[in-house]
Amino acid sequence: MVEALATSPQTKKYLVHFIKKFKLIDFCLPEFESLATLFIPGALGSWAPGRPQPCIETLRRNLYCQPRDTINIAKHPLVYANLPEDAGVIDRIIKRSILVKEVVDVISEAKTYDSLLQSVDKEKLFPILESGKSFKFNIEGIGRKISHKEQVEIIESFGIFPFSKNVDLKNPEIIFKIIENSEDHVIYFGTEVASNRVEEDTFHYKFDLKKRPYLGPTSTDHQLAFLMANQGQVSLGDFVYDPFVGTGSIVLACQYFNAFCFGGDLDIRVLKGYGVGRKTHNKVEGLEKIKKFDIYTNFYHYKMPVPEFFIMDCSNPAVHAQASNLRQPVFDSIVCDPPYGVRARSQKVGVSETKKKRQERKAAEKMEASEEEEVQDDDHDMPHFSMKEHYDVLKVYDDLLENASKILRPGGRLVFLFHTDTSLPAEKNKFPTHPAFEFICSSENNLTKCRARHLITMIKRVEE
Amino acid sequence: MKLITHNILMCNKKGCTKNNFPLRLVVKQYADYEADNAQEYSANLMTRLLEKLDWNALKITVATLPDWGIALPDAVTPELAKDEAFLQSLHMLLVRRQIIDGEMVCPNCERSYEIKNGIANMLLQEDEV
């Protein structure tokens, strides 16, 4: 522990600017914390190799320069954090993040532009100016658009800068960044360390559902799927399992990070690519050349490694917990969206003839395949949804946690979506727990006034 | 289905708890993935993979596939784990090759699990759970 701290890189205070996306505001800090621990182990005083129990509280205390509960991304998406003084590490975090926009090394912070200039950290700024490096300015307003005219005025007020010789708008060595938050009138001035500015340039842009040839009715949105992979810290060579693979959206995000991905599903039709998934209606390049649409289609389309798929009942998995006495359980993370009664039910409204036939076939398959209450729900009419269904849904989670506790390695991550409905009694909305897992965080994604889904991250405990 | 998947699957039939791993693999058809559709070779990737493998199960299984013409060593020594040629051949075997058609049979209870279109069906019948 002491050793790990001694060899860890020096940290410094940086400003982290989050993307303010209304639906994903609650995901910003958990994602940032997850990536920080993935790329800077040991640097934050916990999570060091050899340390048995991760302590999320210590991490948060060391990572943020203010108490975490005082951070309000909706009002102020800018947070000071302690990060290693290593542009490479920061760049890795940014390049993989969905919700971090940029990291800035702040030179001054003020309420007005006049005092912004007066309060500059001279020891930081002067060496940059004297270095003769090319630079440009980048000005951004949060909550209001700063007009071009105003931007020019702001830049001109920075008279001490050598504008006559070193400006380079195309390939500057240094980008000076001014961020004005109109919500609480705080202005920051500093240099950009790493950024993710344009969405078209991000790694995840091409995986937008509109750009995929094969889709399902509940395909997970690409940003949410990548957020899930980030919560799972999916990395090169990891073994990752999604027991409810469906049309493969989550496993696609995990596969992007070069893991060995395994997708299981109870429903044979899903894997074979008929009945549930379909060809997209959007214009996708090369769509006309694809002959068959199934769970493999997207992986071939993106020229990605194809995950392993198998048909398996999550409540009774045939995955070896521990094949030999020598090795520990194989999976590094389990990332999934368990089937939820509400979604299955909402699909059923206005049953068409073809759908009815499909349901009959499903019922027939069900007779063979036994249990899995989720599918039975499909075949009942509305009044049949009662205590039993909700009990069954929670049972799915109980089974998931119990089985995950057997096949995840100690320290491995379990990431899943959990639905709540505030119109139901509170005990139905309680997050599932398991003695083998430590709860790390949850992020709320509102669907309707009373319904929401939560992205929950847990870590398999390490025996002390 | 790749051999790495075979390496983590066991028979889960009710009452079948002993000698249910590794499943006896019968290959009727196999093919190799194009380079694009399999994890790219790197020493790091193979090191991670070796940590996960049950080597003995893999060795026994490969020995039952004589037409593949591959003989694996009894154990992966530290020297072998750094041997580029060995790791490359292991990559071809474990990451690029998939079994498209075949079955897996439990050595204990003789329950057969079908592999079709590269997908193993591990689902049990109602009376087997």
Automatic annotation (TrEMBL), chain A:
It holds the Pfam family Tmrp11_N. GO terms for cellular component: cytoplasm. One of its GO terms (biological process) is methylation. Residues 370-380 have a biased composition (Acidic residues). Residues 347-382 are annotated as: Disordered. GO terms for molecular function: methyltransferase activity; nucleic acid binding. Keywords: Methyltransferase, Transferase. Residues 75-184 form the tRNA (guanine(10)-N(2))-methyltransferase TRMT11 N-terminal domain. This is tRNA (guanine(10)-N(2))-methyltransferase TRMT11 N-terminal domain-containing protein. It comes from Halteria grandinella.
Automatic annotation (TrEMBL), chain B:
This is Trm112 family protein. It holds the Pfam family Trm112p. GO terms for molecular function: protein heterodimerization activity. It comes from the Eukaryota. One of its GO terms (biological process) is tRNA methylation. Belongs to the TRM112 family.
